[in-house]
TrEMBL record:
Biological processes annotated in GO: putrescine biosynthetic process
Protein name: AguA protein
PANTHER family: AGMATINE DEIMINASE-RELATED (PTHR31377)
Lineage: Eukaryota, Sar, Alveolata, Dinophyceae, Suessiales
The species this protein was found in: Symbiodinium necroappetens
InterPro entries associated with the record: Peptidyl-Arg-deiminase_porph (IPR007466)
Domain of life: Eukaryota
Keyword field: Hydrolase
An MF annotation (GO) of this entry: protein-arginine deiminase activity
Amino acid sequence: VKALVAAKDRPRLSRLLEGLENIEVLEAEADDLWVRDSGPVFTVSEAGVLRAVKFNFNGWGQKQRHSLDNQLAEKIADLAGVELLTSSLVLEGGGIE
């Protein structure tokens, strides 16, 4: 399990998770807690290559601050060590149909 946490909250989360195995705490700043809405979508090519896709996130129609959220896909791809592909599509909440 990988948990994203703001730098200021890392000490507290580390204390709460003390003694638990298989949990990696990673730092990433965000405006909102819904990484589902602004984080990348991971894909696997036919050759088995894992990549992350960054979609445009506009804060639910410019209703919320989202400058930090807009950087999450890059941060997560970097932490995962995978190539980041950028899409011109707006996608929020994993609303792929």
